[in-house]
Amino acid sequence: MAFAMVTTAVQQTPTIDEPVYVGTATVYLREHEVRYNPEHPPLGKLLIAGGLAFTHPRLDPAFTGDQTELGRSVLYESGNDPGRLMLAARLPVIALTLLFGLVVLAFARDLTGPTGGLLALCLYAFSPDLIAHGSLATLDVPAAGFLLTSAWALWRARERPRLYLPLAGAALGAALATRMSALPAVPVLLLLAVLSVWHGRGRDTPRPPTARLLRRGVIAAGGVGLVAVAVVWAAYLAVDPRLRWTAPDTLPALHGLRGLVVDALPLPRAYRDGMAVQFGFEDASFEGFLFGRHYHGSLWYYLPAAVLVKTPIGMLVLWLAGAAALLALPRLRPVAPYLLVPPAVLFGAAMTGSRDFGVRYVIFLPMFGAVAAACVTALRRRWADVAAAALAVFVAVSSLRTFPYYLQYSNEAFGGTSSTHLRLHDSNVDWGQDLGRLADRLRERHPGEHVWLVYKGSGKPEHYGIHASDPRKVPADEVHGLLVVSDSSIAKAEGRLAELIAGSEPIDQVGHSITIFRRD
Question: Pseudo-torsion of CA 90, 92, 96, 99, nearest 10°?
Answer without folding.
Answer: 120
